[in-house]
Amino acid sequence: MTIKSNPLTGIQELAIFGGDPLFKEPLHVGRPNIGDQTRLIERIKGSLEHKWLTNDGPLVREFEESVGAVTGAKHNIAVSNATTGLEIVYHAMGFKGEVIVPSFTFIGTVHALEWLGITPVFCDIAPSSHHIDPEKIAPLISSRTSGIVGVHLWGQPCEVEQLKSIADKHNLGLVFDAAHAFGCSHNGRMIGNFGDAEVFSFHATKYLNSFEGGIISTNHADLAEKLIYLRNFGFSGYDQVDYLGINAKMNEISAAMGITSLESKQQVIQTNFENYKLYQNLLLEIPGISFIQYDEEEENNFQYIVLEVDQKATKLTRDQIYTIMWKENVLVRRYFYPGCHRLAPYSSKYPHAGEHLAVTEKVANRVLQLPTGTSITSDEIEQICALLAWIIQHADEISAQLKKENK
Ligand code: T4K
């Protein structure tokens, strides 16, 4: 497929230099997919009529069952969001001292450790997968290490077997942040069945959502039982508290949205897949732009379109491209720039962490995510790719003008 021609006749027409933006309305990354609104309202009405709004209600149980039908995991426990889910998993696992975690992830993965007084020990990622690099874990293990956290970034499964053998060898817990990976598989086995536990996010920006919400999947009955107590203050019965717990419960309205959202799973994935294939065809023609390609033999949700910008070839930095695209109302994102180690409180606690995170630093300065999902049309995708190709074609001129205008 050839890239559409961009309607611009000269760089002065770019919005960054005073022209009109290509799109009148902003195009977002992470626009929620809204399922059948009538079904959602019916469910919410039912909940209001039954006067059961939260605390392990019938819709939460139905949502857990529906998620379980996808993961196939024995226990699927709904929580208020993935971050509280990670917190109670880390706590239930008895994580303490130090836990090895990638810095190239959403801040919540790491904050959940720090919040519990656990020291995150940042491990570098592998350049092609963006996952924690199993080869780099061993030197980080100390007598204080209690666990490893892998993140199935962009929905692509981590190197789960390698991580498991390291965890087993050193008697460490293994948790996966599966916030991006609901509906994805590894060697034909659904995510939700690896490590000690895996945590999915159903935040509004995920391809399926419960407004806010998460699910912890595990095949370990003891852990599941504990997690069910921990999400509800540690209550094991009326007037009986057996654990230090918090309030991590999902409410019925969120579960109503979650169930409704799940009903449109196949359509949303199909749309994401078609968008992905279109981007793939168009982006591969642009010099200096590479992008994460999913293994089509596996189950995928295709919810992230992730580019890497090689500035030597594009002759514009990732950040210059980012700023130019924003001005055109294409609100591309830089997930997960600049890496958790460069954000508070880690940047001041571990000011030298970047020294052994060379790949993280490099990737964090190259990535860009593009809009996808049901809110974007194929025509808009073609226009985005045409714009990007045109910008890179005119890189020398644009770069000189940016310099001139001090931008
Ligand atoms: N682990 C990983 C690897 C994660 O990526 C995340 C979350 C977590 C753990 C924790 O999961 P949760 O505790 O959230 O369940 C967003 C999300 O808030 C966050 O859930 C997500 N990852 C992260 C990748 O993206 P922001 O800071 O980018 O959100 P925001 O407000 O900029 O929204 C993104 C775009 O979506 C905007 O352009 C606007 C649009 N949007 C957003 C919302 C909420 C809408 O159009 N409608 C909406 O309702 O973090």
Notes on the structure:
The two termini are 34 Å apart. By secondary structure, the chain is an alpha/beta fold. The mean pLDDT is 97. Helix 1 (37-50) packs antiparallel against helix 7, helix 2 (58-71) packs parallel to helix 7 and helix 8 packs parallel to helix 13. The chain has 14 helices and 16 strands. Bound molecules: ligand T4K. Ligand T4K is lined by residues 28-32, 81-83, 105-106, 108-109, 151, 177, 179-180, 201, 203-205, 214, 331, 335.
Briefly characterize the structure.
37% of the residues lie in helices and 15% in strands. The chain has 407 residues and is of the alpha/beta class. Strand 7 (185-186) and strand 8 (189-190) form a beta hairpin.
List SSEs in N-to-C order: EHHEHEHEEHEEEEEHEEHHEEHHEHHEHH
Number of strands: 16
Strand order of the largest sheet: 2-10-9-6-5-3-4
Helix content: 25-40%
CA radius of gyration: 22 Å
Topology diagram in text:
Blueprint: E1 27-28, H1 37-50, H2 58-71, E2 75-79, H3 82-92, E3 98-102, H4 107-115, E4 119-123, E5 145-151, H5 160-169, E6 173-177, E7 185-186, E8 189-190, E9 197-201, E10 214-218, H6 221-230, E11 235-237, E12 240-241, H7 252-263, H8 265-283, E13 289-291, E14 305-309, H9 311-314, H10 318-327, E15 330-331, H11 346-349, H12 358-364, E16 367-370, H13 378-393, H14 395-404
Parallel strand pairs: 1-15, 3-4, 3-5, 5-6, 6-9
Antiparallel strand pairs: 2-10, 7-8, 9-10, 11-12, 13-14, 14-16
Helix pairs in contact: 1-7, 2-7, 3-4, 8-13
